[in-house]
């Protein structure tokens, strides 16, 4: 045998990974979500364990890939479900307002007023807008690496 028997015990660190590689349908959604990919890969590649056969390490890595694939599938399903719920919540025309509750646009928007400060500002051109965007990006990068 080219591996430690404690690695593949029922409660061992790689039990779920081995099951995912060989009997993927035997694991439930909770088992997939509880599996930690980082610790599993660390247990496979760990230096503290005796070396294992290439075939076994390949099978265990296949199990890790299947766990990762199933986790991403569950994440995609959750995201799609959230998007559908958001779209259903904010559908146009699904507002239950009476005629007394509906107001005109003038009642809820501010009118454009020109003040003396607006007159003193330089005209906004494409170049000035581009420079301001570049400046904002540079400040953001500076704050990240600060």
Automatic annotation (TrEMBL):
Gene Ontology BP annotations: mitotic sister chromatid cohesion; replication-born double-strand break repair via sister chromatid exchange
An MF annotation (GO) of this entry: chromatin binding
Keyword annotations from UniProtKB, A to Z: Membrane, Nucleus, Transmembrane, Transmembrane helix
UniProt main location, coarse: nucleus
Lineage, opening ranks: Eukaryota, Fungi, Fungi incertae sedis, Chytridiomycota, Chytridiomycota incertae sedis
Domain Rad21/Rec8-like protein N-terminal: 1-101
Name of protein: Rad21/Rec8-like protein N-terminal domain-containing protein
KW Isomerase (keyword) present: no
Record's GO cellular component terms: mitotic cohesin complex; nucleus
One Pfam assignment: Rad21_Rec8_N
Compartment(s) where it occurs, according to its Swiss-Prot or TrEMBL record: Nucleus
Organism: Anaeromyces robustus
Residue spans crossing the bilayer: 128-145
Keyword Magnesium applies: no
């Amino acid at each position: 045998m080219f591996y430690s028997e404690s690695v593949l015990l029922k409660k061992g660190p790689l039990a779920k990974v081995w099951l995912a590689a060989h009997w993927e349908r035997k694991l439930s959604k909770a088992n997939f979500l509880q599996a930690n990919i980082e610790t599993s890969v660390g247990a496979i590649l760990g230096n503290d364990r005796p070396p294992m056969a290439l075939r076994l390490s390949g099978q265990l890595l296949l199990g890790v890939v299947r766990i990762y694939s199933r986790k991403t599938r569950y994440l995609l399903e959750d995201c799609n479900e959230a998007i559908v719920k958001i779209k259903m919540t904010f559908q146009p025309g699904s507002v239950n307002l009476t005629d007394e509750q509906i107001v005109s646009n003038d009642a809820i928007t501010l009118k454009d007023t020109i003040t003396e400060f607006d007159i003193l500002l330089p005209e906004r051109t494409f170049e000035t807008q581009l420079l301001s965007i570049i400046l904002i990006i540079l400040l953001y990068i500076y704050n990240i690496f600060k």
